Amino acid sequence: MKILRIILIILAVLASVFVFIRFYYTKSFSPSSTAEFDNNGLRITVDYCQPSKKGRKIFGEEADKALVPYGKWWRTGANEATVVKFSKDVQIAGQPLKAGTYTLFTIPQKDNWTIIINQEVGQWGLSYDEKKNVLTVPAPAIQTENALEQFKIDFSEQTGGGADMILAWDNTQVTVPIK
To answer: Residues with Cβ < 8 Å from 160, sequence gap 6 or more?
Structure first.
């Protein structure tokens, strides 16, 4: 009985350490953030974590040791996978999507990214099941002159309704039209 108690105490301590590292310690390096758009009854919320450049090569070829290699799926942030919520049915880059809560993944390329809306929600950002994709669309990527130290998701209102979701980090900016 004494050994069982010791084992249970050790397991409880290990579980506490795991929770601390996963939910608190890692977020000190890549803090949580929320991007929101709210207009004419359309509310879009994106919950994500913001990694920093810290002198690293962010986007590029895997052979060049880029943090986010071209052609590979990315959780579009850090820590937990990025979650996006739509209060109404929308069109993303002209493709229909039902209102709901989804995970946002991307596949970066130099000039064009693939935006992926996936129905699996709540996973840590290291797993991705492409069978659960509900939408994939292309979005243009442009190279900017000023490098952005921390990854950021923001919205810009479109004239005529809707919004552009803007993903920006380092010298790369991607615009995703949502109506």
So the answer is: none
Q: What tens digit of pLDDT does each residue of 119-169 get?
A: 999 887 778 899 999 999 999 999 999 999 999 999 999 988 899 999 999
How many C-alpha atoms does 52 have within 13 Å on its Cβ side? 9
In which element (H, E) is residue 59 found? strand 59-60
Cβ atoms 84, 176 nearer than 8 A: no
Helices (H), the chain: 2-20
Q: What is the pLDDT of residues 33-90, one digit of tens each?
A: 999 999 989 999 999 999 999 999 999 999 999 999 999 999 999 988 999 999 999 9
User: Could you give the CA distance from residue 69 to residue 136 in angstroms, rounded to a whole number?
Assistant: 19
Q: What is the pTM of this model?
A: 0.83
The conformation of residue 57, written as its DSSP 8-state character, comes to: -
Residues with Cβ within 8 Å of residue 114, at least 6 apart in sequence:
106, 107, 136, 137, 138, 139
Element (H, E) at 95: strand 95-97
Q: CA 9 to CA 62: how far, in whole Å? A: 43
Q: Residue type for 49, please?
A: C
Phi and psi (nearest 5°) for 109?
Answer: -135, 170
Number of CB atoms found within 10 A of residue 166's CB: 15
